[in-house]
Amino acid sequence: MNDLRPLSSTDRTTLHRLRERGLTDRSALHEVLDAGIICHLGVVIDGLPVVLPTGYGRIGEALYLHGSSANRSLQAAAGTEVCVTVTLLEGLVCARSVFHNSMNYRSAVVYGTARLVTDEDERLAAVEAITEHLIPGRWAHSRRPTRKEMAATAVLAVPLDEASVKVRTGAPKDDEEDYDLDVWAGLLPVTTAIGPAEPDPLLRPDIAVPPHITALETALPHCP
Question: Is 203 inside a domain boundary?
Fold first, then answer.
């Protein structure tokens, strides 16, 4: 179940610059996380920062990440403070001055103590959520993971208790004196498109492309 509380306001989540771009509605956080595909997990290993790009899934107010149980980043993250970010690039903003060139985006930053998930039911639910987040409908059309595969998989849960959302939309914002310059200004929209499915060369010829795949070919599920 989704939490209806507003986003937390802590020292780490309070915006100190361009505060008008910050959103405090928790639903805005869910929208960014649900629209993204890749997150970046920030963790400290042996005193040095490491940022790991990885897939994820959300169940209610928890973000789930998984990987090899031998992954050093996941091992180091378990039981420690981490930072997870998701960014959606939605446009390139061409201003009249170099200083005001920018991007339209939605981004989320989540802070929290990562919990190593040990309950087998929660672990399986997390893997399903991650699978469905990446390719909706895939869980029902794939072989379930074996006990051996699950044993080789580490699952982390990061609570969404402390998070911030920042958004930029709209046209360029130039200095008043620059609007008369002979310089083109405007937006270049950026979208993520899914192309036609390419069957595995080893796929049996009698297996047709399933509906959940053809649906992704004609939709942009991760775009606004």
Answer: no
